[in-house]
From TrEMBL:
Any one annotated GO CC term: plasma membrane
Residues in the signal sequence: none
Record carries keyword Kinase: no
GO molecular function: ABC-type D-xylose transporter activity; ATP binding; ATP hydrolysis activity
Full-protein residues shown: 1 to 248 of 505
Native organism: Alginatibacterium sediminis
Cellular localisation: Cell inner membrane; Cell membrane
Keyword tags: ATP-binding, Cell inner membrane, Cell membrane, Membrane, Nucleotide-binding, Repeat, Sugar transport, Translocase, Transport
Protein name: Xylose ABC transporter ATP-binding protein
Stretches assigned to the ABC transporter domain: 7-244
Amino acid sequence: MSEASILTMHQIVKKFSGVPALKGVDLSLQRGEVVSLCGENGSGKSTLMKVLCGVHPHGSYEGEIRYKGEVLKASNIADTEKLGIAMIHQELTLVKELSVLENLFLGAEISQRGILDYAQMYVETGKLLKRVKLDISPDTRVGELGVGQQQLVEIAKALGKNAEILILDEPSAPLTESETEVLLDIVKQLREEKVSCVYISHKLNEVKEISDRICVIRDGEHIATRDASEISTNDIISMMVGREMTQL
Ligand code: ADP
Ligand code: MG
């Protein structure tokens, strides 16, 4: 493990009813690094990240995860969130009936001597919205927002919990081109702030643009991890499908 590694996942094996979805996958992450995870549908990308963020708890998989040098033994996502690991899932989890502010502080309200401190929460919400470049009122009901904006509120929520590793699972799938550009700008800015990011996407142009390194998995197996500058989108596809592009 190099000194700057914030995370190493070593030989992760995860089975569902005895059937392996991950067959020994390695992944590492440096501080402020963006690593993309590429693979066909069903290759195990989401499962690997659910192992990392505690959806699949310690004991339900084989292999070892080290976070900031310590073995990670999370029982659930609350454990990993406290440590600074946040996953934005493919299915968004905000409460549409509540405001942006209420969603950001749900279960973590700021209070002074037992009384909710809305003024403080308002200020904090404003700061978080600014970090994700969202120009909306903290009072906006989430249900009124478009899917792209909701995605950004999810990221703001993760940042509010001091995420040091942000996992984005196919975040751009429902986004327009301009919303995707905003998202990529935010990921680049987070990299400057030394937040690390695992980015999952099928859109390889995006992957090439945003990543420092690219990790390819196929059928639960780790195929390769390369510097993004070293591989072309055709190389990535070949590794994803296990054949030369010319044979496709
Ligand atoms: P990807 O995100 O790369 O599309 P997944 O990690 O979602 O792939 O799935 C990898 C494999 O594990 C698939 O065969 C999928 O059906 C299986 N799988 C994922 N989650 C579960 C689960 N909770 N129970 C049973 N099988 C699962
Ligand atoms: Mg998935």
